[in-house]
Sequence to fold (1168 residues):
Amino acid sequence: MDPFHADATSPNAMMLDTPDDLPIDLTNTSDKDDVVLITPDGSDAGVPAPPVASDYEAMKELVLPPLADEPRILDDQVYTWTVESWRALGKKEHGERFMAGGFPWRILLFPFGNNVDQCSIYLEHGFDEDLPVPEDWSCCVQFALVLWNPNDPTIYSHHQATHRFTKEESDWGFTRFLELRKMFNQPWEGSDRPLVENDTANITAFVRIVEDETGVLWHNFNNYDSKKETGFVGLKNQGATCYLNSLLQSLYFTNAFRKAIYHIPTEHDESMNNSAYTLQRLFYQLQTSNTAVSTSELTKSFGWETRHIFEQQDVQELSRKLMERMEEKMKGTLYEKALPEMFSGKIKTYISCINVPYESSRIEDFWDVQLNVSGNKDLLDSFRDYIQVEKLEGENQYFAGDEYKLQDANKGVIFKSFPDVLHLQLKRFEYDMQRDTMMKINDRYEFPEEFDAAPYLDKDVDMSEPWEYELHGVLVHSGDLNAGHYYAFMKPGKEGWWYKYDDDKVTKATKREVLEENFGGEYKVHGVRQTTQKKAPIMRPNSAYMLVYIRKSRLDKILTPVTVEDTPAHLRQRFEEEIALREAKRKEREEQHLYLGVRVITDETYKHHGGTDLTAMEANPEEDEAAPKHFRLLRSATMAEAVEQIATKLGQDPRRVRLWVMVNRQNKTVRPDQPVMDLRPTVDETYQRAAGHRDQALRVWMEVADEVDAEGNAVWPTYQGQPNGISVKNDLILLFLKWFDVEGQTLRGAGHVYISKEKKVEDLVPHILQRMGWGEKLPDHEKILLWEEIKPTMIESLKHKISLKAAELQDGDIVCFQRSHDKKSKLGLGEHKSHEEVQKPTDRFEDARDYYDFLLNKKLVKFHAHPTKSDAAKYPPFEIVLNGKMSYDKLAEKVGERLGVEGTHIRFYTVNSQTGNPRTAVKRTPNQTLLNILTPSGYGSLQANHRNDALYFEVLDMSLAEMDTKKTIKLTYLSEGITKEDHYDILVTKSGTVEDLIEALIKKAKLLSEEEGGKIRVFETSGHKIFRDLERTYPVISINDYSNVVAERIPEEELVEAMDQNQYISCFHFQTEPSRVHGMPFKLLLHEGERFADTKKRLEKRTGLKGKSFEKIKFAVVRRQRFSQPQYLQDDDILWDVAASEDDFLGLDHVDRSRSLRNGVGDLFLKG
Fold:
């Protein structure tokens, strides 16, 4: 059985975790049970006979093979339990205790299976109540359990496993050790007796205790604390940022680099867009945090969006760009040269003549060295390969100027200096010419802990200080080209442990993990018994791709200790503030159940409110003056205490304040209901009585009394409290006033009034005049219009002569008023309105009801110039608040006013909500409104995945009305063979022909006329093949809107003969299979009797493909029949003869480059 079989479990059904470094075929990869069969004829003479179960030393070699981790063995013990009267045993039995590694152990047996029809056997520690498990105890054990017949030890079955035993995971073994039906009565395979004979069998435990050198051998990492175990923390993986994490850990532990970053002046630019500041924050958190640190602040400062976080980038490029950015930030500071001195060396490229004193050379800086892995066995081989000298001789001689002419010369590179911190990029990813793709090189490639760089330096370099380097960082890639994981091994100090930094997890690491396991190549095969079957080697998926070496003589300088005091003071202060804020928020969350939020509307907030109701309850008071004031009060506080706190905070005398509880009315408005006169109940009790279970906070309106008595206590118009504690309600009602300012086009709160419900509506006018300071009476040509705001969609005019009671007004209702001009009185009889007065602006409202309707339908819309159809520099983005009911024409007029163009010349496009790109143009229809455009209803809304707050616009050369008479043709113009495609939207009169389309293309693309540049032809393509040629007389109205229309100049060779006599073949591109089509199809003129070698020369000119791109193409004739195989052509073939049918195609078989561009990763960039 496989030693890491999935059935190796705890009796509590805990599954065995398969190790990352799986050893190769440690014993037997068969899915069958581990049964040793002794062949009587000894036919396999070359294979040693299996051991017998009673030979413990021989069995130990079989069942306890060497482990891939190669841990040191601390103790080996063997214990055998003879199980008698098997069928009389209970459900669960234990063997005697035995000692191994100084700890007690015993065998746990389920004779008839642990809820399965197989025998279950486990190993468990022997601690119990008399001998309790030590705190934080763990023991790493390789063990095997062998069930065998004591009368015939050649009959046995065995399983083996490894496990980290702890207090929580006290047992481990095999739930499905052996099927019960095979154990009794039935003769064992290759024998005439059963395994359990006479109800007796032996169970032998082979227990090997191994050293847990790092403290994490076979660890499941549940509740693992990196900081506690190692003193360091990791970095969280945002998606695919493990490559970034490994690089950042490498730079962080380059202490001199960390100090240099801390010295970048950021105290005056603590912006999250400043990458230097966010890198300082990241390093400080790695230094002080107890948990893994997020890199999101840093990546946001790079300008990366979510999609960039899920793209794996080139680590070398990222390192280079990060260094450049930090170097820019350090300019003008004391640390301006810190990074070049730390990471930059010099290299000389030279051509040196052998026989004359002439040399051409240049010296350049380098920040890392890229070394070839392929063809080199180790690092030193790669360095020798790097500086290898090339002889320039014979036809390759070097021209050494007019004096020396052509000379034999040596060409190469040599290092002039190495930096203190040497970054070596191992070229694990290279282009494979055969596969025409990038591949990962998994060859074994060794690198030393130390090496001497002196042999690779120029002979004139100063050697007084040794050029010896010590390994301090190994960055690893595990996986293949398309999917993998990055992590790093770092040695933070001159001495001490190596650590593995795998995203948010940090563990100690052995030198074997750092070196041997990251050399790549094949897994070593341990303890495999000889077999007759050869198996293919398994390659390690993990290998080093970047090495960090530090010059030994500069170790103290580079690894200088970094303390909290080395960090910028402003950074420490900011984090202390953030920690204090987090602590306050934590405490607030813990005590949240003790407090209740209270939202308080005041006369001042109401005065600034420009919408419906008294306020917008969810508005933020820090951003909106009309938002209710927020309070956090103890639920157990009395309402008297609540009034005291609220009034004091708002600068009012608590004796003059009372609170009205707001309630949700049936029409979904929120209005004051009645005042809180009894101040003895608690805040929570008041909240519950106000149907608080529906609201997250207690909502109140704060009333401040206008009148007080001699003692300073409030005298309320209604609900006045009596000595007996009962509040008396009279016939006065509380009404809130709102003013619609026609001139200012605003709506604002205007306080409140108390008035008898028996009074008439017109009796409100004197109160309004007084409150607004408009005098006792308005001019004769003006009047006050009154409206009741019942709900946002119901604004009703109030009749002046009816009573308030008849108007059904009650406490908390809102009355809106406006001044209205009597136009007839103002103009006088017989006068006429001027033209300006007759024209009513689209965004001006003459009465409150229309304005309320605008509030209900207003939309803040963002407008952007179409990225390909308008000049974004000329028309920058802008926002306008618009009425959702306005028509397309009114929308265009409004946008046109903002742009300074005619509204009739503007076309709109919706915005894709996923990509942000323009979608189709909005059709202009008579009944279309802005709301219909942004949020379509009906069937179309199911496909509408566009934004409801943004539009693209295009400024047209003609009006939309004129454009409606034209048809837009999306056309691709081939200007250089088929290699360059220019895309145009061509407008042609709907009654026009292809001839008109060609003329419009020449004008739009500013091409030479057909007389000067040559005839142009137009054809349609479908599925990357030519569909049909379009005659010049073909009507454009018949061209399908979704077809691909292509135009090109007719090649000269086709014009030599009469075109109607030419014979063509259609050509298309495919990759491997003719069904995998791509690229731009074209037609090729056939020449009778022409060898294909000459045809290829014409094809190179016809397509515009040159050099290696053309050389990689394989050509084949493809029949139109389905599933036909391509017939590949040789140079001596005659295409005229091979492509005998008109239905034959010429296929160009080559890699689809556009696919990698569509699916590939964009260029790496850092913004901040």
